Amino acid sequence: AQSVTQPDIHITVSEGASLELRCNYSYGATPYLFWYVQSPGQGLQLLLKYFSGDTLVQGIKGFEAEFKRSQSSFNLRKPSVHWSDAAEYFCAVGARANNDMRFGAGTRLTVKP
Amino acid sequence: DAGVTQSPTHLIKTRGQHVTLRCSPISGHKSVSWYQQVLGQGPQFIFQYYEKEERGRGNFPDRFSARQFPNYSSELNVNALLLGDSALYLCASSSGPVGLNGEQYFGPGTRLTVT
Asked: Which of A34, A47, A83, B104, by CA, is between 20 and 30 Å from A97?
């Protein structure tokens, strides 16, 4: 079965600085890859997804992620962080062969003024 | 269009009791998945239903069960509640089976507290 690792539990960046959140997955075939954001007490909002094709995907709120098969990674990036980006970010991997999605443990982002 | 809706928002139960959580998918979506999110962790897959049939099951005990109705809404039932069942229960809907196109939309969740 597929699995996801998010190595960073908590990241703090200054407002206006760039951001990269790491995600590594394990799956034998080409996976579906997702990044979700969760604000306190809220459900999950989809930021972006990779199914196939172009390995650099653009999402909402100025986020992008790059699928690197050789590194089994799908890191999330944003060139300039806003205070409203403070939240919990989850990477997830889905498989064409089954019907479940596996989530990482999440990375909590704190934005300093 | 309304998004995924879940009820109730919050729930407090006692150990040993039974609970039923409800989910209405986005209009036109035929697939519903259930996830458990324990505080400080990522969501864990419990079930997926598509066209009223179970299409996937996570590693949860038989105390957890679910069903999908003809209007594609869904119920998650948990029997003999344990303290460890305290969590945010998330419902997600998609147009097809997750394994087909992968994209899901999540509801706000039901916060279950077991005392």
From this structure: A47
Whose tokens are 């099951």? That residue is B57
Take residue A44 and report the two structure tokens written for it: 């999950």
Put simply, the answer to whether B101 touches A104 (Cβ < 8 Å) is no
Nearest chain B alpha carbon to A39? B108
pLDDT digits 0-9 by tens, B81-104: 999 999 999 999 988 766 556 678
B42 in A contact zone (CB under 8 Å): yes
Report the largest interatomic distance among the alpha carbons of chain A, rounded to a whole angstrom: 44
| Interface contact flag, B102 A100, Cβ < 8 Å | no
φ, ψ (nearest 5 deg) of residue B113: -115, 125
> What CA–CA distance (Å, rounded) separates A64 from A47?
9
- Do residues B72 and B49 lie in contact, with contact meaning Cβ atoms separated by under 8 Å? no
Q: Give the model's pLDDT for residue B103.
A: 77
Q: Rounded to 5 degrees, what are φ and ψ at B84?
A: -70, -10
